[in-house]
Design goal:
The protein is of the alpha+beta class and 195 residues long. The chain has two domains: 83 residues, no CATH class; 104 residues, no CATH class.
């Protein structure tokens, strides 16, 4: 059953990537790689975990087709296959319930997360607390995208649940990129260069 679900999630991920490729005029490595996969390659990657040796042919073809280093293709695919094909639905449901049950004031949570759209956005990428701060990115490449932890577990769960409830939880990198464009996050194009 897990293999079938993984394959379905991969087909869905690639379909979403193709939609974004058609909408956006911004280059993004993960979208280019996912868009270039053939149906046979999807079938293979959806049923067998990515392996550098076993899938050398896929990596080399993508590298040649996209004119990028095969190491870069490996990095993008291995990250995507490791995290984007996980099922976060039960995690998100549990987090949202914890937030709703806690009754914490929204203003307190927003302050703790430094969530002040459109300048500073907190979100879940997969199941990790993350942030995008366009002003920090403007000071230097790589400064705008961050990940962090809240040490107190209960508080962390509540804050993460808040993000789920607010629609700021993204189970895949593709859904994160799509939301940043559609919601017009400040300087969203720069965020795409990290994917």
């Amino acid at each position: 059953m897990e293999g079938t679900a993984r394959l379905q999630r991969l087909f869905t991920l690639v379909a979403e990537a193709k939609v974004l490729v058609s909408k956006a005029q911004v280059h993004c490595m993960i979208l280019s790689v996912l868009d270039a996969l053939t149906d046979n390659e999807l079938q293979e990657l959806g049923t067998r975990h990515l392996n550098r040796d076993r899938h050398r042919g896929i990596l080399d073809r993508l590298s040649q087709t996209l004119a990028i280093d095969s190491g870069a293709v490996w990095q993008v695919l291995s990250q995507s296959m490791a995290w984007d094909l996980e099922d976060y639905a039960s995690t998100y449901t549990r987090l949202k319930s914890a937030y709703e049950d806690a009754g914490s004031p929204e203003a307190d949570i927003r302050a703790e997360l430094h969530h002040h759209p459109p300048d500073s956005l907190a979100f879940l990428h997969h199941a990790a607390l993350s942030s995008w701060r366009a002003a920090d990115e403007a000071r230097g490449a790589g400064l705008g995208l961050g990940r962090w932890i809240i040490e107190e577990r209960d508080r962390s769960t509540i804050c993460m649940g808040y993000l789920v409830a607010m629609g700021m939880a993204f189970p895949t990198t593709v859904t994160l990129l799509g939301a940043s464009m559609e919601q017009k996050w400040r300087n969203w194009q720069a965020l795409w260069h990290y994917s």
